[in-house]
Amino acid sequence: MKVQMLSYKRLDSPIHRLAGSTKLIFFALWSVVSMITYDTRSLLAMFLFSLIMFALSKVKFRDYSFVLYLILFFFLLNHIAIFLFSPHEGVKIYGTTHELFHIIGWYSVTLEQLFYQFNIMLKYLTVVPIALLFILTTDPSEFAASLNRIGVNYKISYAVALAMRYIPDIQRDYQNISFSAQARGIDTSRKEKLFKRLKNVVSILLPLTLSSVERIGVVSAAMELRGFGRHKRRTWYNAKSFTARDYAAFAVILIVMAVSITLTVSNGSRFYNPFV
Fold it and tell me: What is the pTM of this model?
């Protein structure tokens, strides 16, 4: 674990310069649109746009690669489960059957099922990049200010910000404990066999948990001594005001929503059907 995963890094990019409130609202509306629609054209356009946003952010692949691989693994399991439990869902949705080949029993591969699961894949590929981008380009303190700005209680907002700040701290503690364990002969590197390695990693979790609990106690005591939570409102040092680029981002997401709704209405349903 040589790099900090899913931690904010201050960079000079158009995405980083957006206000936290803008990115939060954009992400929320983007997620709603991508989850509601099954229009392939809309999802493909959103996916390509999310890739462009990632390129503009200047975020390096190593900063989120591990989490991305983990998401893709569960994404693969989800696809397998969909086919195992409902291999003809696409046929029910699109109303036609174009069988490619039969496997066994009621399991057969159809164009409709492949197209249906392709759309599900697009949904993941549309939401995941924006979610990662939001986490990687938003300062935790500014994120807390953004939550408070849209009506979330500042205590909850601050708790979320602390959770985001703990991510790199926990990674650093894990790395230090891992090095200490390796010095005592407990190897967690790739040189060890997989099951032995997993067993050694589990042995690190207890001291990692205890160190995390201790840090929570220290932070809680410090906040209490400073009178946190005494007043109903608070100000934020890292809060940003909206600028022209923030309003441009709002315009983009509203256009995306309008186009998606238009395509859905023209289809007559949430699903784009190329088989009719």
Answer: 0.74
